[in-house]
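re: the backbone from monday

yeah here it is again, tokenized this time
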């Protein structure tokens, strides 16, 4: 089975949480990485890695001492990444992103430089969204950046209610076309 058909199968099974019919394109990957200064990125958190398209690129660009904590709710995607990516800098967590603070505390981490989120904000429950974003705001402080892609501008108001600065860019070279937000306080 190809990567795309595996992804589509997971979309059919977990429609409410996967939120996309295929993995992100390399163009969207590039746009998601663009706000990151990898020289200053000691701790990166990834939310919703799916089959690991951004995970691989982050690990490729991260410095040798940096750490990546990736939260994936789907068991199938978690198993896929576990079987295909072997890197000591990656801490892969098979749980919901709203338990972010709990897992970071276990790792002794209280400050994050970047959050790279693929969470489908349009379909996940409000209480999960609130908890995730509040934790991200707290952990990113004034120097960190929250990067999020979405297929519409529906999340703009929510993100503006959490972050002082919310910028976005549009990429048509993805199925479907996507907006990439870059948010900071
Ligand atoms: C739109 S897919 C993106 C996958 C991949 N990053 C990409 O760009 O191709 C969204 C991902 O978020 C995951 N997800 C949804 N809700 C989640 C949650 N509460 N915590 C962690 N992951 C979640 C889904 O299982 C899925 O892998």
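seq for it, each position gets an aa:
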């Amino acid at each position: 089975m190809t990567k795309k058909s595996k992804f589509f199968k997971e979309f059919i099974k977990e429609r409410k949480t996967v939120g996309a019919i295929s993995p992100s394109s390399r163009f969207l990957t590039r746009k998601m990485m663009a706000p990151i200064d990898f020289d200053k990125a000691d701790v990166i958190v990834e939310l919703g890695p799916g089959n690991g398209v951004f995970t691989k690129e982050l690990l490729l660009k991260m410095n040798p001492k940096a750490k990546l904590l990736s939260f994936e709710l789907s068991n199938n995607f978690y198993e896929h990444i576990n079987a295909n990516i072997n890197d000591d800098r990656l801490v892969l967590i098979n749980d919901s992103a709203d338990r972010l603070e709990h897992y970071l505390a276990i790792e002794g981490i209280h400050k994050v430089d970047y959050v790279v989120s693929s969470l489908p904000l349009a379909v996940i429950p409000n209480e999960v969204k609130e908890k995730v974003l509040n934790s991200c705001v707290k952990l990113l402080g004034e120097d960190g950046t929250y990067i999020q892609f979405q297929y519409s501008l529906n999340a703009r108001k929510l993100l503006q209610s959490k972050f002082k600065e919310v910028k976005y860019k549009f990429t048509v070279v993805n199925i479907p076309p996507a907006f990439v937000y870059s948010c900071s306080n």
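The helical segments are 3-13, 15-18, 26-33, 53-61, 75-84, 100-106, 126-140, 156-162. The chain has one domain: 3-184.
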